[in-house]
Structure formats: structure tokens, C-alpha cells
Write a structure and sequence with these properties.
- This protein is an all-alpha fold.
- The chain has one domain (52-303): ABC transporter involved in vitamin B12 uptake, BtuC (Orthogonal Bundle).
- 74% of the residues lie in helices and 3% in strands.
- The protein has 14 helices and 4 strands.
- A hairpin with a 2-residue loop joins β1 (100-102) and β2.
- α3 (48-73) packs across α13 (292-311) and α5 packs antiparallel against α11.
- The protein is globular.
- The chain starts with a helix and ends with a helix.
- One of its GO terms (molecular function) is transmembrane transporter activity.
């Protein structure tokens, strides 16, 4: 009887190991597939100029997805990031154009200070999300859905729904230079991509090599066990939501800088792209599992897919449908991978025990 079990296990291992490997590499396979497809289906897809434009778009998705990955790994969700994109851009635009009224005077901030102020807004929204979730025990979905509407409403109120145009700044007030954030290049590579590389490396290091990273994974895997082992769960959750807001603010600043204008509806539905990239990159919606590297590859898949469909002339409505299908497919494949890994572990345990 023991010999039969071993034989069954060995046969299953040989058959399932390649399947498990394919499931783990699904994001890279998807990236390779979309690149090959659009190389033939879209004219000039691999043109250098087009690749640089796509890299900027991918970077925007990746910033949001990196922050979203930490939130999801910790067992939460952040639906407010798209609205934070719009609000942060409006804060930057308002400060550059109108400054801060102080009675009979107006205080104009330098561009670095404007950037810091906009980033602070994103961190503040993240802190509000964290407080609602940790102190008032509001479900993450509901808390961030509420701040989604609040942040979007605040963005609209800041200008009565109008756009802040011409953010080139005024030399007399020392507010020039803002457009460089979204248009500058270093060694031929957009500054946005360099920023993504820096934040991506830091985020990957924090996730894989620091106590904070281990605590985030522990909370997502089993929050109660993490708390009993001494992890300050509420503090860690506050950090991940604040970081998510920080990443969203970066995107808001980059978009306003690229357009040299701020629009209150910027970032609408961007949270869908962030979730899709994170899940496609292997982040489990149940928490406790995910890698920054996989998320960035997932952002490339979503970004290339979106730009490729535009180049093919596919309707924006169909693009939304495709993104929804991608999210569903990614979650389904993730569940399949978890079941295969579980069966694989059980079979190996049975074989070693036999």
C-alpha cells in the first residue's frame, strides 16, 4: 500500500510541477504574449518614441500598484487612490497659480515645497483611511470608498469643477519649473521611469528584507496570530495606507506636470488599474502573498495592453471590459495556483511520511 502511495505521489509531482511553474510565471508569460501580439497587430508599436511614451504610462500604473500591493498584502484594499491622484494635482495647481492667501498678502511656495505639500495631502488621506480602519473598525472597502468620494469632492470644490491651466509658473513668484517633473529625461530615459525604479527598489527591499515587510505579510496571513506575536498591527496598517496615498500623490503630480494643468477628475478609475496590476503580478486578494517585482511586471502588462488597444483603435468602452476580464482571470488563476500548491504540499507530505 505504501509503495502505491509513493508511486501516485511521484506521478503527480512530475505532472504538476510544470503546471505550478507556469502558474508562477503567468505574469511574465502574459507580458511576453501582449508584446508579441501588439508587435504584429499595431503599427510602429516597437518604435522607440512609442516605447518611451508607454514607459511613462506604465510608470503611472506601477506607482499606484506598488502602494496597492502593500495594502492588499496586509489584508486590505484602497479604493481612494484615483481620487487622491486628482486631489493632489489640484492642490499643486492651486498653489502654483493662486498661492496661499494671507489677508492682504499671498504666499507663493517654491516648486519643491508645492510638491511636498501635494505629497502631504496624499499621506493625510492615507492616514484618514488608516484611522477609520484601525480605530473605528470600519471595513477597508467601505472606509476607502467613502474617502474616494470625499477626496474627489474636495478636488472639485477647490476650483468649482474647473481646470487649473498653465502651470508653467511665474518667475516673479519663483513658481517655475513644475513641468520638468513630467517631461524631463535623464540619459534619454524619462525622469518618471527613474523615479519608479528608485521607489520600486526601495519598496522591494522593504517588503523582502526588513522587519516591517515581514510584519505586513504576517498581518495579511493571519492578523490575530501576528498581534499575539507582538506585531503592532494598527501601526503597520497606518503605514501601508499612508504609503498608498503617497504613491497616489506622486501620480497626481506627474500627470499635472505632463499636462501643465490640473483637472479635478484626473485619476478616475485608476484604482482599477492598480488592483489589476497587483493581482496580475501575483498578489493574493486574501492577503499575505505578493511581490513588488511581480506587481511592476503586472503594471507593464496593463499599460502595454491599454496603449496597444488604443493604437489598434479599440473603443475605450471595450478597454474597460478587457481590464475587468483581466482582473477576474488573474484572481481565478491565483486561486488555481493556491489549490495546486496545497495539493502539491499534501502529496509531498504523504510521500515523505510513507
Amino acid at each position: 500500500m505504501t509503495a502505491v502511495v509513493k508511486q501516485t505521489s511521484s506521478t503527480w509531482t512530475v505532472g504538476e510541477a510544470p503546471l505550478l511553474l507556469l502558474l508562477k510565471l503567468r505574469t511574465f508569460i502574459a507580458l511576453f504574449a501582449v508584446v508579441i501580439f501588439f508587435s504584429f497587430a499595431a503599427t510602429n508599436f516597437l518604435n522607440i518614441e512609442n516605447l518611451l511614451i508607454m514607459s511613462r504610462h506604465v510608470a503611472l500604473n506601477a506607482f499606484l500598484a506598488i502602494g496597492m500591493t502593500f495594502v492588499i498584502v496586509a489584508g486590505g484594499i484602497d479604493l481612494s487612490v484615483g481620487s487622491v491622484v486628482g486631489l493632489s494635482g489640484m492642490v499643486a495647481g492651486g498653489l502654483i497659480l493662486h498661492g496661499i492667501p494671507l489677508g492682504a498678502y499671498t504666499l507663493y511656495l517654491s516648486v519643491p515645497m508645492v510638491i511636498v505639500a501635494a505629497l502631504a495631502v496624499g499621506v493625510a488621506v492615507g492616514a484618514i483611511n488608516g484611522l477609520l480602519i484601525t480605530r473605528l473598525n470600519v471595513a477597508p472597502f467601505i472606509a476607502t470608498l467613502g474617502t474616494l468620494y470625499v477626496a474627489r469632492g474636495a478636488a472639485l470644490l477647490s476650483s468649482d469643477g474647473e481646470t487649473f491651466p498653465n502651470l508653467a509658473g511665474n518667475p516673479a513668484y519663483g513658481t517655475t519649473g513644475f513641468p520638468l517633473l513630467g517631461s524631463a529625461s535623464v540619459l534619454g530615459v524619462p525622469l518618471t521611469v527613474w523615479l519608479l525604479a528608485i521607489i520600486g527598489v526601495i519598496a522591494a527591499y522593504v517588503a523582502a528584507r526588513t522587519p516591517l515587510g515581514r510584519q505586513i505579510y504576517a498581518i495579511g496571513s493571519n492578523e490575530r496570530a501576528a498581534q499575539l506575536s507582538g506585531v503592532r498591527v494598527n501601526r503597520v496598517k497606518m503605514i501601508v495606507y499612508m504609503f498608498s496615498g503617497f504613491c497616489a500623490s506622486i501620480v497626481g503630480l506627474i500627470i499635472s506636470s505632463e499636462l501643465v494643468a490640473s483637472h479635478p477628475m484626473s485619476g478616475e478609475t485608476f484604482e482599477l488599474n492598480a488592483i489589476a496590476a497587483a493581482v496580475l503580478g501575483g498578489t493574493s486578494m486574501s492577503g499575505g502573498r505578493g511581490k513588488i517585482g511581480g506587481t511592476i511586471v503586472g503594471a507593464f502588462v496593463i499599460g502595454i495592453l491599454s496603449d496597444g488597444l488604443v493604437m489598434m483603435g479599440v473603443s475605450a468602452f471595450w478597454q474597460t471590459v478587457v481590464k475587468g476580464v483581466v482582473i477576474i482571470a488573474a484572481v481565478v488563476v491565483d486561486q488555481i495556483q493556491r489549490r495546486v500548491q496545497h495539493r502539491f504540499a499534501l502529496q509531498r507530505q504523504a510521500a515523505s511520511g510513507g
